[in-house]
Amino acid sequence: MTNRKADQILSVAQMQAAEKALMDAGTSVDELMQRAGRGAAEIVWRIGAGRPVTILCGPGNNGGDGYVIAQALHERSVPVTVVAPMEPKTDAARTARSLFAGNVQASIGKTTGHVFVDCLFGSGLTRGLSPELLGEIEKAFLGHDLSVAIDLPSGIEADSGDYFDRSYGYDCTVALGAWKYAHFCGLAATQMGRLHLVDIGVEGCKSGAYLMRRPAIRGPWAGAHKYTRGLLAVIGGEMPGAPMLSAKAAMHAGAGYVKLFTPEKPDHVPHSLVVDTQALDVSLEDPRLDALLIGPGLGIGDVARERLRLALDLQLPTVLDADALQILDYSMLQDADPESIVATPHEGELNTLCKAFGVEGETKRHKAAGLQGATGMTVIAKGPDTTVHGEGDEDGETILLGAFEPASSWLSVAGSGDVLAGIVASRLATGDDPFDAACRAVWLHGEAARQCGPAFTADELADAVPLALAACL
Fold first, then answer.
1. b/e map of 421-442 (b: 16 or more CB within 10 Å)?
2. Which has the least CB within 10 A, 91, 96, 213, 354?
3. Residue 401 pLDDT greater than 60, yes or no
4. Are 341 and 311 spatial neighbours (Cβ–Cβ below 8 Å)?
5. CB under 8 Å to 302, separation ≥6 — which residues?
C-alpha cells in the first residue's frame, strides 16, 4: 500500500471514532464540516464549470456539508439553489445554514440546473427514505445533467452497501474523511460513478480495510531458470477442462514450470504443459514442487476427497478452488498448514464453507472475514465486489481489500474463476506469500479482463494475463 491513510476503508463506527479523536484533540465539529464541505465544493465546482448547481440538504451533518458547499460555490459566483425539505437538526448544520448567504427553498419543485448535489443523508442512515424525499431525489435527477453524491448516495447502508430504497446511478461520489465500505462493496458500489476523497485530517485505524491498488511485481532475476521461478502442480480429477484452463493461466502469471497431475492425459494439451498421469501420491513426491492448485474439475466423490487429503498433507502453499471447497472439512485441515492456503470461494461456496466451519455472518464480507479467522486460510471472496481477507499487514492484523475500480462485469463468464485460481497458484509458486499472491492475482485478473474488452471467453482471459502482468513490472 503506497498510502495507507488514503487507501483505508472505515466502518461507520470507526469513522465516528476517528472524528471524535479529532475533536478531542481540539478540532471543532464546525471546522470539520468546513473542511469537508469546502473540499467537496472544489470537486463540484470543477464538475459544473460555473453552471447552475442544485443542492439537496438533509437535517443532519450531511446536510450541513451541503450548506458549506453552497456557500463556497456562492463565493465563486456559481448560481446555487439550496433545497431543504427539513430544517437542520444538529448544531453544526444550523451553523452552516446560518453562514450561507443565499436563499433556501423547501421543495425542488420545477428547479433545474446542470449539477444535482445529494446531501440529504450520508453514512449514518439506518432506514429507508419517505416517499416525499424519494420524490425530491427523483425530480432532481430528472431536472439535471449530472449528479454528485456527498459521502454516499442517500438511501444506502454504509457498512454493507445495501440500498434501503431504489437506486440511482450517480456520476460522481465524494467521500468525506475516509472511504466507506459501500463505496466498494454491495450493490451500491455499482452506482457511485467516479470516486473522489476529501481529506479532513482523519487518521487511519490499526485494523480494517484497504483498497487494492496496482501491485509492483518484479520480473525474474538475470540468472533465473524454470525451477527458481517456481514449479506449480495443478491437480486435476474427473473433468479435464477446468484444470487445463487453470494451468494455462498459471503459465502466463509468473511461474517457471507448470505441471498437470491428472488420472488420464486430456486431448489437445499445449506443448508447453507437462502432464503427469502417475498415481498422485507418486507425483507429489517431487521435492522441487513449490505450490499446488486443487479443485477445478476435481469432483466431489471419495476419490476426490483422497486427492485433496494427499495435497493438503504435503503442507505446500496451496490454492483451494471449486470442488475442493465443496468437500473441505475440519478434519482435512488438521494435518495441513492453513496459513499457506488460499481459498477462492464464490458466494455459494462461501456459504458451504461457513456451514462446515461454524461461521456466521450477515454479509459476504463478514462471512469471509469469519472464515479467515476460523481457519487461518487467506480467503478470496469472489463476486462483483471481490475482497481478500488474510494476515497481510506487518503488524499482523487482518486486512480486507476492495478494488478501487470495479472489475469488468464481463468477468461473469464460465471459467473465469479457474483463471483466477491459476493466477493465484502461479504467484504462490514464484514465492509470494499467500496474502500478497491473492491480492496480486485479483488485480491481475481484473486487468486481464480490461485488456480483453467485452464478451471474452475464459481462454482469451487467460491469454491476456501477460498483458496485465506487464502493467505491474
1. bbbbbbbbbbebbbbbbbbbbb
2. 91
3. no
4. no
5. none
What would you measure as the largest C-alpha separation in the chain, in angstroms? 81
CA-based angle 125:127:133, to the nearest 5? 85
Cβ count within 10 A of residue 92: 22
DSSP state of 377: -
Return d(Cα 461, Cα 473) in angstroms, integer: 19
Quote the pLDDT of residue 150.
97
Could you write out the DSSP letters of every residue in 231-275?
EEEEE--S-SHHHHHHHHHHHTTT-SEEEEE-SSPPSS--TTSEE
* The predicted structure's pLDDT at residue 395: 41
Domains and CATH numbers, the chain: 4-205 (3.40.50.10260), 231-470 (3.40.1190.20)
With bands split at pLDDT 50, 70 and 90, how would you rate the model's confidence at 127?
A: confident
With 0.90 as the threshold, say if the pTM is over it. Answer: no
> Which residue(s) pair with 67 in the sheet?
none
For residue 115, what are the β-bridge partners? Answer: 53, 146
Residue type for position 403: A
